[in-house]
Amino acid sequence: MKCEICGEDATVHVTEVHDDRDPVQRRLCDRHALEAGLPMPTAEQSATEMVAKLRSLATFIRTNNRMSRPDEMAQQGAAGDLTETLPGTADFDRQVTYLEDFATFIEQNGRPPTDQEMPDPF
What we know:
The radius of gyration is 16 Å and the shape is globular. The protein contains 4 helices and 2 strands; from the N terminus they run E-E-H-H-H-H. A hairpin with a 7-residue loop joins strand 1 and strand 2. The chain is mostly helical. Strands 1-2 form a two-stranded antiparallel sheet. It has helices spanning 30-35, 43-64, 70-75, 90-109; strands at 12-16, 24-28.
């Protein structure tokens, strides 16, 4: 996705919620996010937080033998709907393994993998 101001790659995705209107999605590059006064975590903080969320999600899935519902994903600090993937299927196992492998890659490399390094099975 592109920055809504300059068209560069967006690295910050924010949902602004105001009492009197619908939520507004904003996508900004690092420079424009900083100019907007948004807090920017370091790459190390971001990677550490991402690993914790991925590990939590994978543990939930393995423990409950099912994918998380959107409300459960939100409680874990994630977003999405994986509920169409049924336990006991090849897709189920491939997706959970991907989450675990993604976390391991970040721990070992200090960054998320590229699509070429680790294609997304979702």
